Amino acid sequence: MSIIWSLIVGAIAGWLAGMVMKGGGYGLLVNIILGLIGGLVGDLAFGLLGLNATNLVGRIICATVGAVLLIAVARAVRK
Helices 56-78 and 3-21, interaxial angle, to 10°? Predict the structure, then answer.
């Protein structure tokens, strides 16, 4: 996947994770970073389950799930 598509997927996934976890986005830059790191976490989580995201929609879902997991862990550690 090209860098531009990765940034787009990261922005969408970060925004979706923000909507799921708090009701709003975190801002474009944080959404992109959250989505990119979430993509890595999502790949790991999906890999442990034996799943593989191969198309654009699958990548967005995978990155969103990873970003939601990141937010949940960060909130748990912070408390």
Answer: 50
Residue 14: domain span = 3-78
The total number of structural domains that make up the chain = 1
Enter the DSSP assignment of 48.
H
SS3 at position 53: coil
pTM to 2 decimal places? 0.88
Distances 68 to 2, 14, 36, 40, 45 between C-alpha atoms, Å: 23, 8, 12, 12, 12
pLDDT digits (tens, 9 = 90+) for 7-52: 999 999 999 998 998 756 678 888 889 999 999 999 999 999 999 9
Residues 6+ apart with CB under 8 A from 32: 7, 10, 11, 14
